[in-house]
Design a protein that fits this description.
The structure holds 2 protein chains of 2 kinds. By secondary structure, chain A is mostly helical. Chain A has a single domain (2-300), classed as ABC transporter involved in vitamin B12 uptake, BtuC (Orthogonal Bundle), CATH 1.10.3470. Chain A contains 11 helices and 4 strands, in the order H-H-H-H-E-E-E-H-H-H-H-E-H-H-H. The longest helix of chain A has 31 residues, at 2-32. The radius of gyration of chain A is 19 Å and the shape is globular. Chain A starts with a helix and ends in a 15-residue tail after the last helix. By secondary structure, chain B is mainly alpha-helical. Chain B has a domain at 14-245. Chain B contains 17 helices and 2 strands. Chain B has helices at 2-10, 12-31, 34-60, 67-82, 85-91, 96-99, 105-127, 132-152, 154-157, 172-191, 193-203, 205-210, 215-241, 251-264, 269-291, 306-321, 342-355; strands at residues 293-295, 298-300. In chain B, strand 1 and strand 2 form a beta hairpin. In chain B, helix 3 (34-60) packs antiparallel against helix 15 (269-291), helix 4 (67-82) packs across helix 13 and helix 14 runs parallel beside helix 16 (306-321). The chains are: A mainly alpha, B mainly alpha. Chains A and B meet through helix 4, helix 9 and helix 11 of A and helix 7, helix 8, helix 12, helix 14 and helix 16 of B.
């Protein structure tokens, strides 16, 4: 029984990470039909913002050594500014192009950001010590759970609630939902395209920065591809959940996390390194049975 | 004369492309520069992959990020066939049929590429049912799947370690020959009934459906055919370098191959070939600068990573300012006046009669 609770919490914690990432991607996809490859690099750069830029093998904390409120605020600001800069410089010029052009633009941008980081910080993974005590387990009813997992789940619930409230009750949030529904019609009715898209990018920056903290605290290392593995699963989660649905993105994220943990438990030990193969396999199977994803969105069907 | 001109018109694009490439390779061969020859071979191998990528992406208009998985499958399969028996027994644990024999190069190459095609067929059946972007992301899942699998499949792939000792036989001419085959097949396909049906669906999915084109089937055919040449690309890579490692078949190579196609112009074969050539040349120049180059007495050295950064930047510029690539999706134009074809005569006759009162 305790074992089961442990597995359930593992699954929720991993699912939370995927869901938060998938939401950041789903939000942008909603307003501009862009699958943002660079989202993983927002997460990665949030992590790198903590240390002194240098190619030295060991990392020296810079922002990471500041008092917590300043530290958190700085990382959030860095990632939000980065997201806004990417929108302004790379995505706005191609906004009216076909979805496939947008997709490849974000792929190029991601490659650009990763190699820029390699150039500035070097290509090798670096150890950082940020809030390592979060990995200490706490014992609840005989179950040992790393504090971080509780924090991850808590942060996810808080951000999800905030996002829902924002989309439902603020004017810009309502405008954003309208834009997801039918961008052209929303514009005709007075929704300002640039503003809505910029705000969407800022929010995806907030989500990415939150994940930066969770991932750095969990792994204790920085590497230039730390975001890309997460984003790969998050992409798949948005497709499984149903492209264009935020609910679908979150559900898909949790689903992918839960499936991963289940395979981690049920596969024979020798097969466990292949866990991701099974996860991808299951996902392809889900797509075979439900090509439109779990939550079908009518407005999303690609038009000629 | 007229006959010959018509024939030339029909094969003009592949003819010119192959002629230019052959001329270029010939010049390089005559200089006798071994290092340059290696660079050119490397570029030609990439070109096979880019033409392979073009067969699917160019004709269907659906982006795919998973094709490097087929390259990896081809590269490892040819290693299973062609490694010397002794090396196989040291490094891998293969079944008897592979372990006890060393197979000849060409049949191995074709069998390896066919394996890549077979895999493409199996994963393509579900994926091609998806709409454009969802299909693109699903191909990424395929890459992730095979990458993880090969990385952990120690008995057949040596896992994350490099698999050495693959016989080296690929030189500039072998690579050129395969580029020529890829170009001819890709061109024949795109002019064929199947290719035209797929291109019609690229232009207007709904109209294509309305005239009875089965988009799922057409995309699947292109996917399988393109996987064959991605597989050949992997085979050539393996027999050119002599060793392969799973980690080289990941997003980096995916990016370079896609960049070549997009920069050249994804909607035409001329674009695919041009892009591969242009990016190869730029990469080589940047690599020279990374090593350090002395121009007019000034020593210039760019920091490591300039290559990747430069290509990504170039690609972003192309996407922003010329999204249809250098060639704009056009093929090499036909420079001569074409003698009137029977069909044209017929058409003008019809026009003449229909305008009569």
């Amino acid at each position: 029984m305790t074992n089961l609770i442990q597995v359930a919490i593992d699954a929720l914690a991993l699912g939370s990470l995927y869901a938060l990432t998938a939401l950041g991607i789903g939000l942008i996809f909603g307003v501009m039909r862009l699958i943002n490859f660079a989202h993983g690099d927002f997460i990665m750069i949030g992590g790198y913002a903590l240390i002194v830029p240098s190619t030295a093998a060991t990392a020296t904390l810079f922002v990471g050594a500041w008092p917590v409120p300043f530290l958190v605020a700085t990382v959030f600001i860095v990632v939000i500014l980065l997201a806004l800069a990417c929108e302004r410089l790379a995505f706005r010029p191609v906004r009216s192009a076909a979805p496939s052009v947008l997709l490849i633009t974000s792929f190029a941008l991601s490659y650009f950001l990763e190699n820029a980081v390699i150039m500035i910080y070097g290509g090798r993974a670096k150890a950082v010590n940020l809030w390592q005590n979060l990995m200490d387990p706490i014992v609840i009813m005989g179950v040992r759970i790393p504090e971080l997992q509780i924090v991850t789940i808590g942060v996810t619930i808080a951000l999800l609630t905030l996002l829902v409230l924002f989309l439902r009750f603020t004017p810009i949030g309502v405008a954003m939902r309208a834009a997801s529904e039918d961008f052209r019609m929303a514009r005709l009715l007075g929704v300002r395209a640039n503003r809505v898209i910029a705000v969407a990018f800022a929010i995806s920056g907030v989500l990415a920065a939150a994940i930066s903290f969770l991932i750095v605290a969990q792994n204790g290392t920085l590497s230039f591809h730390m975001g890309s593995f997460l984003v790969l699963f998050a992409f798949v989660a948005t497709v499984v959940g149903g492209m264009g649905s935020l609910l679908g993105a979150a559900l898909g994220g949790f689903l992918v996390g839960i499936v991963s943990v289940i395979f981690q438990v049920i596969l024979p030990i020798g097969w466990r390194p292949d866990r991701d193969v099974w996860v991808y396999g299951i996902i392809l199977l889900v797509l075979l049975l439900r090509p439109t994803g779990l939550v079908k969105v009518k407005s999303i069907e690609e038009r000629a | 004369m007229t006959q010959a001109l018509r024939l030339l018109h029909a094969v003009w694009v592949p003819f010119v492309l192959i002629a230019i490439l052959t001329g270029f390779v010939l010049v390089v061969a005559l200089t006798g520069d071994v290092i340059l020859a290696r660079t050119v071979t490397d570029g030609l191998i990439r070109m096979v992959m880019v033409v392979g990528l073009y067969i699917f992406i160019g004709n269907s208009g659906v982006l795919a990020f998973g094709h490097i998985a087929f390259t990896m499958i081809g590269a490892y399969a040819t290693a299973w066939f062609t490694l010397p028996v002794l090396k196989k027994s040291f490094q891998l644990h293969l079944p008897a049929i592979l372990a006890e024999r060393q197979y000849p190069a060409i049949p191995s190459a074709i069998a390896s590429a066919l394996l890549a095609s077979l895999v493409a067929f199996v994963v393509g059946v579900p994926i091609m049912r998806l709409g454009g972007i969802a299909a693109s992301i699903a191909t990424l899942a395929v890459l992730g799947m095979f990458y993880t699998f090969y990385q952990n499949w120690g008995a057949w792939t040596m896992g994350a370690a490099t698999l050495p000792g693959i016989p080296i036989y690929v030189d500039m001419w072998t690579a050129l020959a395969w580029v020529a085959v890829a170009i001819v097949v890709a061109f024949t396909y795109q002019q064929s009934r199947l290719g035209l049906a797929l291109r019609a669906s690229r232009e207007d999915e709904f109209a294509a459906r309305a005239v009875g084109i089965n988009i799922w089937k057409q995309r699947l055919i292109a996917f399988v055919l393109s996987a064959f040449f991605m597989g050949i690309g992997g085979v050539l890579q393996a027999h050119f370098l002599g060793s392969i490692a799973v980690k080289n078949f990941w997003l980096g190579l995916t990016f370079v191959a896609l960049a070549m196609l997009i920069v050249g112009g994804q909607r035409s074969m001329t674009g695919a070939v041009t892009g591969a050539a242009v990016i190869s040349i730029i990469v080589e120049i940047l690599r020279q600068f990374e090593v350090g180059l002395t121009i007019a007495g000034v020593h210039v050295q760019l920091p490591l990573g300039s290559q990747e950064l430069g290509i990504a930047f170039l690609m972003l510029l192309i996407l922003i300012f010329r999204p249809s690539g250098i060639t704009g999706g056009r093929e090499i134009p036909w420079p001569f006046a074409l003698p009137p074809a029977p069909l044209n005569e017929l058409a003008s006759e019809v026009r003449a009669t229909s305008t009569q009162p």
